[in-house]
């Protein structure tokens, strides 16, 4: 199977030169996205077949590439197969969306060649079976996505985003490089099989864990390594944003899972504390940032950070249970985390597509300039609403199911023997609950100010519904969200082999449960049935509608909205997104963002306008990144002198360096 | 009997922690003193229950001391002091209720982790009592740290002392002498602080501790 | 046969909550009026209001979208379902396993999500201010509620309401400080969720501090009737929830013979009456808070919930 998968990846790679040859023509767009769609769908099928174990043939291949004594190993096991499904499903949806959306691209020659390569690189990361090919593919993924981020390089902010992204990506890869270096040991056993067989000492394993959190976490967007993400994800074209947010962060999660759960052996109990804390804080910080943004795509990017936090909290919980040898509980926690990986890839892609459609129709991402789009873009607004409900963890859609499973796993925490974990896990649960409630607020805001109300600008009032391909992609994802929400049992069972291979246990089989409920532990403990809930909602809503319309009145009149006797025709009097967030800003922002409102009221008689300025400070940026940037600038200033030396001094520098290295070699034991 | 004995002791000690939190939540001095009286009242009830459960009559005396001095005499005296000082309507600017409460919850978690780990094979009654007592002590300290007004610092100190008494009664076999000496030392400390308050006030026209820092040459 | 009987019980509960909800609202209003030495409207006034509203035409704002018209039905349906899943007179009903307590809260959360969207749909400032405050309140009330659920679920070893209620009725519960904290926190959350004094005032329409009523200001006719009925159902739901968790006596278990049902219904009616009286007394005795005192009030509930979960570990059996 892995051979076919590699052929498909090769096909994706081959698309790049074709795209270059076709240039900026319309045919190029259709060819690249159409073929990418076909290839990713093939890859989905391959991954599904491997996941359900229909292929018993050896799924491992060694190519004579890379390091001469190592070769490039590729393999598809259950874990890789699951993530391949996530990546290629997202890739297929993005390609379908781009068939329509890509036609509006003003410089397609900057996007088309990189797009299929980017997809190929993500696939290669998942299939890599040795550290060398993993890192090469990882770096390839970073570079192609960087190229896509700066596709619209005319905007200064995009260039800045690209620069920061490049820095952080290199930093992350460096951390991963060191982590693999430590894992491989002095003998350089870079193949994953060899790494699995070697058992690193506790201190070494801890160091690897920290490096992995830094390396994979910076790609996934863990706080405080998230700074690049909300800049870079929105800067790319929307279908690429969807891929970066919905899919590439999952590849980062895969990196973490692969190293920590698979390669690193038995975890120590305190690892979970680190992961849980980082996850919980990331979840809350991410959504608080999201609530303060006015840029629709940036809201979505910050919300990705939140969801990554939820995923890592679930992974941390799984680590804790695994460390204490509780495979069933670990399986529940890990299933919830992986299910959220899948769910998030669906609804985040959907939301980015919706944002892309809005951007296309209006030319702006600023929510304060949108509004009323539900009248002009009914389909887009409907699917966007589905995405919003799903991501806000509300039943009966899929976001709720994974959140619910996480809470069920949290409720198992008293069985842990460690007192610290017993007390900490419920607190992380509180953070997750807080982030879920704030996420609902955030997406009421995102949907309400983009699609509801009256148009706040002429671009919004002149918007047109988006094209059929884009809508098809969005409806497909919305349907997937619904299906995963009402029959989650199928998905939980599909995850069983993945979980089994990582923690040595699995959740009870769900497909046989009557009425298609899900029962994570026991019927008397907890159960949930999204299908039934949805059926009840529809039936009772219909009953109410039918009864009232038949028995009472079904008349309808239109009139102006109530304005206390002062009808206001101006759109500017509507509530704004900033004022919507004001209560939450007052509650949380004063601590987290040092938020201050500065009112400037001119004296009586003056005709100057009154002003209200809100000052928000990004404390993480100020305390972590700004000093580093200052330090780098300072060092660069100092080293600048090196540029103006004479040739003789350069030569002596080189000579001194050589002698120094020789000296080091001489005294090295 | 065993179940009820534990349950009631647990309820009372838990309530003491809760009242400590209510103390942290108050931003008016008058209300703070009233809550402190409630704190002492709960302590007295808790000590009396311990006396009943452990069959240790001398603990009743401790309970009475707590009731008379801490729940009645000292709050009444403090009431008079703050009325005299004219600060009974003052709203204290605290560090911020939210962060303080969060910090408090963190301290409770910490004290529970420490106590439950250390006393793994002790009597469950003494075990939970000690965990609660340590929480009360830490919350009292937190109160002293986060308040600026000298009066609320005194109250923080005394609720800390309540935590010590709780710990002492929970652990069986604490001699009465220790009890009484602790109680009296606190009383004396209280009198001394009371006098100092007036002296400070005479000198500097305020009991705000930040104002005093100025005279030491700090915080320019 | 058993299936039909189970189905009948489930149907009975659905009808019962639907019919009782306006009565509870009317009862609270009546008690409040009597406490203020007023005669007050008759007990059945909410029913009359609802009937009158459904007969009137709907006046829709020019700008309202299809979402605005669908939301009342959705909100009503979700609230009704949630209310039917909380054990009232009998536990272990036919569909009680389709949603546990966490799911019930989330179902109410989706009702609120859509109601907040309805507030934004017309594009007036009233709706905006209402929605904005509603989500702020929810952002604190929901985690507080989940912490309460955690506390109770850790004690009872289940999130299934029937199991929890049965456990709370057994002698194993004991006196626990966590339960007290949980109860207080649950009451605070219930007050905030139902937009009662001191968080919000259900009796006013045009006041700068209003929250829920501002959000639904644009609704009229049958839509408003549904929203009001949902509000009444939600109040009933929270009273039932507190009753089934903290005063679980009298709920007839699923295996009990039908005779015990009468006891169950009578006990339920008595609990509702007591709950209504307590609510009325509390609302009469207290003044409404400033909007920006509300976060501290709800924050206290969140802290209590968190503290309750922590203190659980020093109570018995942990």
What descriptive keywords fit this protein?
A: 669 residues; mainly alpha; two-stranded antiparallel ribbon; 24 helices; 3% strand; C: 318 residues; 11 helices
Q: Roughly what fraction of the amino acids of chain C lie in strands? A: under 5%
Strand order of the largest sheet of chain A: 1-2
Q: Span from first to last CA of chain A?
A: 47 Å
Radius of gyration of chain A: 26 Å
Helix-strand pattern of chain C: HHEHHHHHHHHH
Mean of residue pLDDT of chain C?
90
Give the strand tally of chain C: 1
Low-confidence stretches of chain C: none
Quaternary structure annotation: heterotrimer
Which H/E pattern describes the elements of chain A?
A: HHEEHHHHHHHHHHHHHHHHHHHEHEEHH
Mean pLDDT of chain A: 91
Number of helices of chain C: 11
- Main pleated-sheet profile of chain C: none
Supply Rg of chain C.
19 Å
Class inferred from helices and paired strands of chain C: mainly alpha
Distance between the termini of chain C: 43 Å
Please work out how many helical segments of chain A DSSP would assign. 24
What is the overall silhouette of chain C? globular
Largest interface comes to: A-C, 85 and 84 residues
Describe this structure in words.
The complex is a heterotrimer of chains A (669), B (220) and C (318). By secondary structure, chain A is mainly alpha-helical. Chain A has 24 helices and five strands. In chain A, the strands form two sheets. In chain A, strands 1-2 form a two-stranded antiparallel ribbon. Chain A has a two-stranded antiparallel ribbon with strand order 4-5. Chain A starts with a helix and ends with a helix. Chain B has one domain. The longest helix of chain B is centred in the last third of the chain and has 29 residues, at 176-204. By secondary structure, chain C is mainly alpha-helical. Chain C has helices at residues 2-35, 45-55, 66-85, 101-121, 125-156, 161-169, 177-193, 212-215, 221-246, 259-285, 294-311; one strand spanning 58-61. Strand 3 of chain A pairs parallel with strand 1 of chain C, so a sheet runs across the interface.
